[in-house]
Amino acid sequence: MATGPVSPRAPQALDGEGQGRQPTAAGQAHARLKAMILDNLLPPGAQLLEGELALRLGLSRTPVREAMVRLEQEGLVAITPRHGMRVLPIAAADMREIYEVLTSLEPMAAELLARRPEPAAGLGRLEQACGAMEQALAAQDRPAWAEADEAFHLGLAELCGNRRLAGMVMQVWEQSHRARLFTLHQRPLPARSTAEHRRVLEAIAAGEPERAHALYRRHRRRSGAELISLIERSGVAWL
Amino acid sequence: MATGPVSPRAPQALDGEGQGRQPTAAGQAHARLKAMILDNLLPPGAQLLEGELALRLGLSRTPVREAMVRLEQEGLVAITPRHGMRVLPIAAADMREIYEVLTSLEPMAAELLARRPEPAAGLGRLEQACGAMEQALAAQDRPAWAEADEAFHLGLAELCGNRRLAGMVMQVWEQSHRARLFTLHQRPLPARSTAEHRRVLEAIAAGEPERAHALYRRHRRRSGAELISLIERSGVAWL
DNA sequence: GAATTCGTTTGCGTATGCATTGTTGGCAGT
DNA sequence: ACTGCCAACAATGCATACGCAAACGAATTC
User: Fold this and answer.
1) What is the Cα–Cα distance from A156 to A161, expressed in whole angstroms?
2) What angle (nearest 5°) sits at the alpha carbon of residue A230, between those of residues B108 and B106?
3) Helix or strand run (H / E) with residue B77
4) How far is A67 from chain B (nearest CA, A)?
5) Do A73 and B73 touch (CB under 8 A)?
6) Quick count: other Cβ atoms within 10 Å of Cβ B167?
7) Contact partners, residue B23, CB within 8 Å, separation at least 6
8) CA geometry: angle at A56 spanning A52 and A58, to 5°?
9) Three-state DSSP class for residue A47
10) Strand B84-87 relative to strand A84-87: parallel, antiparallel, unpaired?
């Protein structure tokens, strides 16, 4: 069920706006620019002027400017006074930061989920994602695996009941989107990660918060270290 | 050394802009509005229109609007289409979320700090904060204690070397600023918290990441639970 | 030949006007 | 008296205009 060769899923689903769509020009500009950045249509390092973007999006500078401010606060671009906005590249150091944050937050999400009164309820989404990962692994379909991986991680963050935590996970997830795409075709087939996801899910369903926390933490530490050394060894300074 | 009865410190120091500030009107509007919110000059629930704020700040609507967007993304206000911005109240549920996030992130910061090559170096700021806390505790000076507590936590986040983690800690710290101020005069003197901070600092200086992590986590879990039950028992629905 | 200075251009920060949309209050009908 | 509809108003989202400041280039001088 891989959607495409490069873009594993519609990036719109990444933002926190859910379903409540507003046709406001600023919101559209924000969504479109974010999608362009995540899809690598605006490559990292690209410098884009307000007026240029306004022309490209068929809007005036005002809503574009508001979108730029939002993107800057999301950590996707930097606004420098006379040079417009610059799409921020992701270096190995950034990936280290991001994985440290995820290593903190995601085990907490798993723990919270396992601590609910009915831990096994409402995990259908994660079950499905886990199954899709295993299936994609068997089929050696990396894009499909990445899509399922994303569904698992974002689903976990959203289900844990802590909106702030979910927002933070989504934010760094988006920031690292391009880097994950880059490493996707370089790393060995993620058999181990797939199995670890399954075991975390089992611990959650069994209502064992401490075990879910510990398992997830170990998974994140290992996979993060793996990914970072992969980026460092690949020799690219940034993505 | 308490600065004032209610506002323990200048809220400007809370934002992540450091020193390099430009006198742009939008930036000033953002800083001033944030300060007003954190100082409770704009009480939670307050509805403020663009034009009204522009008049109050002596600016036009455009920079005020940009400031509002930034504040919304920082989780301090909500913008509702025809009612201007509303200062978000903090409920017990929000404090639970915030303390869960801090329980994840801050132990990681301590761990990272303890993992550096020279763990004991550069801790002067934390030493100082810890000393100020002990001194304030002995003098039963709660505002001074709160100020030192803030210096310790934000100092730790900034020193850990992970800018994203530091930004997230600061963000939820700002969100919970008013609630902490509210509980400050209700809770018993934080003797236990003071001692726990000292022990965390010792573990960091000794270069024991795992112990620093565990100690900090336990501290956060306990003090968070204490604070939340205090808010819940106080009967106020929101702050 | 190189450096410095001045002028021009371009991008941006801010202000303001306009059109759209939502809300509220009043009036009428039941 | 209550409810529903309509109209007027107000706030906002967006476009555009204006002035300033910085950067680039060219020319002149040392």
Assistant:
1) 9
2) 5
3) strand B77-80
4) 10
5) yes
6) 17
7) none
8) 115
9) strand
10) unpaired
Instruction: Answer whether B70 sits within 8 Å of A69, measured CB to CB.
Output: yes
Q: How many CB pairs under 8 A join A and B?
A: 62
B222 residue type, one letter: R
- What span, in angstroms and rounded, lies between the C-alpha atoms of A31 and A10? 11
B52 CA to D7 C1' in angstroms comes to 26
Provide the greatest CA pair distance for chain B: 56
Each residue's pLDDT tens digit, A88-141: 999 999 999 999 999 999 999 999 999 999 888 889 999 999 999 999 999 999
Per-residue tokens: B45: 């629930």
On chain B, the residues whose CB falls within 8 A of the CB of A107 are 104
Q: Which two tokens stand for residue B20?
A: 């390099």
Q: Cα(B47)–Cα(B89) distance, rounded to whole angstroms?
A: 12
Q: Compute CA B86 distance to the chain's CA centroid, rounded to the nearest angstrom.
A: 20
* Amino acid identity at A87: V
The answer to whether the CB of A87 falls within 8 A of the CB of A43 is: yes
The residues facing A160 across adjacent strands are none
Which residue, chain included where needed, has tokens 């934002």? B15
Structure tokens at A138: 């068997």
Q: How far apart are CA B128 and CA B23, in angstroms?
A: 32
Set of chain B residues whose Cβ sits within 8 Å of the Cβ of A112? 100
The answer on pLDDT for A231 being more than 80 is yes
Domains delineated in chain A: 23-87 (1.10.10.10), 92-234 (1.20.120.530)
Query: Most distant CA pair in chain A: distance in Å?
Result: 56
Chain C nucleotides near the protein (CB, 7 A): 11-17, 21-23
Q: Long-range pairs for B1-5 at CB < 8 Å and ≥24 separation?
A: B1/B132, B1/B136, B1/B141, B1/B144, B1/B147, B2/B136, B2/B141, B2/B143, B2/B144, B2/B147, B3/B143, B3/B147, B4/B143, B5/B143
Location of structure tokens 């002990």: B134
In this complex, the residue with its CA at the shortest distance from the C1' of nucleotide D16 is A60
Residue of B nearest to A22 (CA): B81
What pLDDT, on the 0 to 100 scale, is given for residue B22? 58
Q: Which of B122, B120, B116, B144 is nearest to B131 (CA)?
A: B144
What is the DSSP-derived secondary structure letter of residue B91?
B
pLDDT per residue of chain B (239 residues) written in tens, 0 to 9: 333 344 444 444 444 444 444 578 999 999 999 999 999 999 999 999 999 999 999 999 999 999 999 999 999 999 998 899 999 999 999 999 999 999 999 999 999 999 999 888 889 999 999 999 999 999 999 999 999 999 999 999 999 999 999 999 999 999 999 999 888 888 888 999 999 999 999 999 999 999 999 999 999 999 999 888 888 888 777 77
Angle (CA) A71 A74 A80, round 5°: 55
